[in-house]
From TrEMBL:
Keyword 4Fe-4S (UniProt): no
Native species: Oryzicola mucosus
GO molecular function: phosphorelay response regulator activity; transcription cis-regulatory region binding
Protein name: Response regulator transcription factor
Segments forming a coiled coil: none
GO biological process: regulation of DNA-templated transcription
Organismal lineage: Bacteria, Pseudomonadati, Pseudomonadota, Alphaproteobacteria, Hyphomicrobiales
Tagged with keyword Cytoplasm: no
Length: 222
């Protein structure tokens, strides 16, 4: 999930729509709402956030350090001003990157992936038997060959791999893929995504690498 902070509802709604087209969950906040959420949200909610985009917050200040007290997810500033002074000021505030608008949504996603790779190079991929599962948005490889997957199925596989050996519930998978604020999609959609993913993996591997237990959830078989 991507979190966007901006005082302009038109901006947050616009980004939410663009991210949705790319199959990425997102949520928009005004700065005061965001501050309250940062101080009160559960750790599990923060684990579902892949990055924070900070836009125009008016007279309010969003502190990157307050975000990093809760999570290591990238904090990126979206700047309307194309001046060196503004860019330096934003970096001095502690953000990981400054993106000047207008910018294509895919560039934002690419920058987020690049920051996460640099921060966690040792976990950029996970090898499980014949599978190599990347954590930066690339399609997995089966026996060295790429296996194209829709974004949400790929994200589910990444999430299961990041919890390798541990069982995760349907709710945890849903929050990781759709975000904790999506009330328009039912959790049961996870079952459909995983069913399609398992079928594709079985066809390529000759076995089912995802174990499912009713009421307990899912895990990758190691």
């Amino acid at each position: 999930m991507i979190v966007i902070v901006d005082e302009r509802e038109l901006v947050t709604d616009g980004y939410n729509s663009l991210f949705s087209r790319e199959g990425v969950a997102s949520a928009g906040f005004r700065s005061r709402e965001f501050g309250e959420w940062v101080s009160s949200a559960a750790d599990e909610d923060f684990r579902s956030v892949h990055a924070f985009l900070i836009g125009d917050c008016g007279d309010s200040q969003v502190s990157p350090s307050s975000i990093r007290d809760r999570t290591d997810a990238p904090v990126i500033a979206l700047s309307d001003q194309h001046t060196l002074e503004q860019t330096l000021r934003l970096f001095e505030s502690g953000v990981d990157d400054v993106i000047r608008k207008p910018v294509h949504i895919r560039e934002i996603l690419a920058r987020i992936s690049a920051i996460r790779r640099r921060a966690q190079p040792e976990t950029s991929c996970t090898d499980i038997a014949d599978m190599r599962i990347f954590m930066d948005g690339r399609d997995p490889e089966i026996n060295g060959q790429p296996m194209p997957l829709p974004r949400r199925e790929r994200r589910i596989l990444e999430y299961l791999a990041s919890n390798r050996g541990r069982r995760v519930t349907k709710t945890q998978v849903f929050n990781a893929i759709y975000g904790v604020f999506d009330d328009e999609v039912e959790e049961n959609v996870v079952e459909s995504h995983i069913s399609k993913l398992r079928k594709k993996l079985r066809e390529r591997l000759g076995r089912d690498p995802i174990e499912s237990k009713r009421f307990l959830g899912y895990r990758l078989v190691i």
